[in-house]
Amino acid sequence: MIVASLKKQLEGAGGTFMLETDVTIERGGITAIAGPSGSGKTTFLRMLAGLTSPDEGLLEVGGEVWFRKDTGKKKQVNLKPQQRRVGVVFQGYALFPHMTVLGNLLYASRDREMAEKLLNLVGLLQLKHARPANLSGGQKQRVALARALMQRPRILLLDEPLSALDESMKTLLQDELLKVNKELGVTILIVTHDSSEMYKLCDRVLLFEMGRIAADTSPRKLFVERQTTQKFAFKGEILEIRAVDAVYIAVVAIGNNLVEVVIDSDEKEGLQSGDSVIVGTKAFNPTVRKFAPKDFDISRL
Amino acid sequence: MNSIRAKVVGIESSENLHRVMLSAGNQIFTVITLELADDYTVGAMVDIRFKSAHVALAKNIAGEVSIANRLQATVQDLQKGKILVDMQLESDAGNISALTTTEAVERMRIVPGDVVTALMKASDLYLSRVEGA
Question: Which of A223, A257, A272 is a domain's end point?
């Protein structure tokens, strides 16, 4: 169990603000750290890893104090990153280019058996003698993941580890993260903006806003149980509204997709190009059929 | 988007599928929906919402119809296009708009002042919390 009751003053684009967390995270789960950029997500991870010192507070992991600084009489504690048993994977791979895949893992810990086990777990055993330059982005990220696990961390901190990867590689790595979480029992905290990633991987979402945890909920509650009983609702941006016959057609960008929606004069009222909107329909309306090669695959873009 | 303020008067559930009965004016509405948050309970005020394209119209309706929601309404105004007509209707439960084909409006000879029945399938309606409530 992680108890993180931490405070740190941060410099933001709009002046200084207080990063303040008071949260308990159960062992073995996967928690999403979400929120706009500059809300304190990365600093929170860095404080857990020991890369940034909080101004004050308490960080306890599995009953062991990693950080303590308060006005009380108890001794101040601030364990170094290498004393913390935390694995970290950031968006950049940061592998040693002159070492093989196996060499990169053994640099973290000289446990060859563990290295082979982890490479097998992430499906890279055949590439153990390859050098990073010869690997794809997804493969490099898997090496970084395996390396972060070499010291048998209690906590694995991932800062947008999959955001640079294409959809199919993302799906593959998500499956591997689930496997790692299940087989090694490591507690994972992952910074992500991807709602499907949160839904698939995480049992909990901490939504950061200006240094505070504005929502602490499940992905299901956050994304599925909404304000209305509409089941399909996606955030998008209006690109264009044009009058056609007795109706209007709104062109809306939802993620990488463009859709056209017929709206009536009531709905059109107060809407214009550039507006953020929610496009929704009831669960009874959408049709579902198997993806066929002739279908336009937006994920290829 | 049509919106009718209504009071929940009954909920019938089968696992996560629900049939919600609501009253507005003298009218009882039925909405079929998946998942219902805890605060949608009998007595709660909610908005029934539906697209104007999901409203069918009948004149002098007779016989049995499976559609659960039948609303007596008076035609106020018609915005005619070549293919579609956007129609404003006044009813005891509130004002709504209906989108129908120009062909149907001409065939049924619908003009302002006519009394029609607006038909809405229970699965085409959804519920929304009353804003600010």
Answer: A223
